[in-house]
Amino acid sequence: MSQMTLAEQLVLLAELASLDQKARSVADKLETVPGAAKKADDVVAAFKKQLDDVEAKKEASDKARRTVENELADERAKIRKWESRANELRGEREHAALVSEISATKRAMHRLEDTQLEHMEALEAAQKLAVDIKAKHDKAAAAATDEWSKVGADVKALKAEHEAFAVARQALLEKLPAPLTKRYEMIAAKRNGVGVAIIKGEMCGACKRMMPPQLCIQVRKGLVLEACASCHRLLVHEDMTKAASPAPTP
Questions:
Q1: Which letter does DSSP use for residue 227 in this model?
Q2: Tally of CB atoms within 10 A around 162
Q3: Which residues of the chain have pLDDT under 70?
Q4: DSSP state of 210
Q5: Domain ranges within the chain, ordered by starting residue
Q6: How many angstroms separate the CA atoms of 234 and 240, rounded?
Q7: Angle at 225 between CA 219 and CA 228, to 5 degrees
Q8: Full DSSP string of 44-77
Q9: Burial class of residue 237 (count of CB atoms within 10 Å of its CB; 0-12, 13-18, 19+)
Q10: CA–CA distance, 38 with 43 (Å, rounded to integer)
Q11: Which strands form 234-237's sheet, in the order they lie side by side?
């Protein structure tokens, strides 16, 4: 690495710029090409959430129904016990008190039965709604599968292309001195993945800022490694992009 001239490093940076530009283009396509399929997935996810919510309501209604059912069973057991005792009581006051207690318990049971009916109706409604949403979910899932099948081959090819660019990019980075690689990566991380700006004429090709003529000459001759004062990307002259080997296209 120590034998690599600054001009050669700038040529490699020019190759990186070309690779990164193509990689960004592929990345953009990976976002747009499956757009309809992703929207279809969102519809499926929305129905799935509705279905989960309805299933939760079903479970809550069924749990409440069973709770009331158990309370009713306890109350019926009390009444059977008290009615059995009523026949054994001889005192009028004790008998009247027990009959009053039985009547109050029966009224409470009627209220529990009404509540139980409400829970059963809620459960039945939730079950019907779940069937309806499930049908819509399955239809949406089938539509999503169809959309992905339309773009599956394109997405696979774009992913392979993007991976190939990543491999080529890594190979270029390994040729550069480690400090320069680290600097480049830090700049690229802050500049949407592109750490190099091409000087076109006397202008930064990234931010369109005019460059000092002397700086442009020095960069073109490979005498200095500088960054744009505006966008902070490393500067490479457009003449060096002609010297760079073409970026590999998978």
A1: B
A2: 18
A3: 1-2, 87, 89-90, 243-250
A4: B
A5: 6-31+173-243, 34-152
A6: 13
A7: 80
A8: HHHHHHHHHHHHHHHHHHHHHHHHHHHHHHHHHH
A9: buried
A10: 9
A11: 203-204, 196-200, 234-237
| Separation CA 228–CA 205 (nearest Å) | 10
Contact 206, 194 (CB under 8 A): yes
Third-level CATH fold of 34-152: Helix Hairpins (1.10.287)
Predicted pLDDT at 90? 65
Confirm if 148 and 156 have CB atoms less than 8 A apart: no
Asked if 104 contacts 49 with a C-beta cutoff of 8 angstroms, the reply is: no
Half-sphere exposure of 235 (CA within 13 A, CB side): 31
Residues 159 and 30 sit within 8 Å (Cβ to Cβ): yes
At the top level of CATH, the class of 6-31+173-243 is mainly alpha
Are 162 and 26 a contacting pair, CB within 8 Å? yes
**Same topology between domain 6-31+173-243 and domain 34-152:** yes
User: Nearest 5°: CA angle at 122, between 117 and 126?
Assistant: 150
Digit-coded pLDDT (tens) for 137-182: 999 999 999 999 999 999 999 999 999 999 999 999 899 999 999 9
Q: Which two tokens stand for residue 76?
A: 């019926």
Helices of type H across the chain: 6-32, 35-86, 92-175, 178-190, 213-220, 238-243
Mean pLDDT of the chain: 90
Q: Residue 231: phi, psi to the nearest 5? A: -95, -10
Q: Quick check: pTM over 0.85?
A: no
| Rounded distance between C-alpha atoms, residue 45 and residue 41, angstroms | 6
The token pair that represents 236 in the structure block? 């490479």
- Are β-strands 196-200 and 234-237 bridged in parallel, bridged antiparallel, or unpaired? parallel
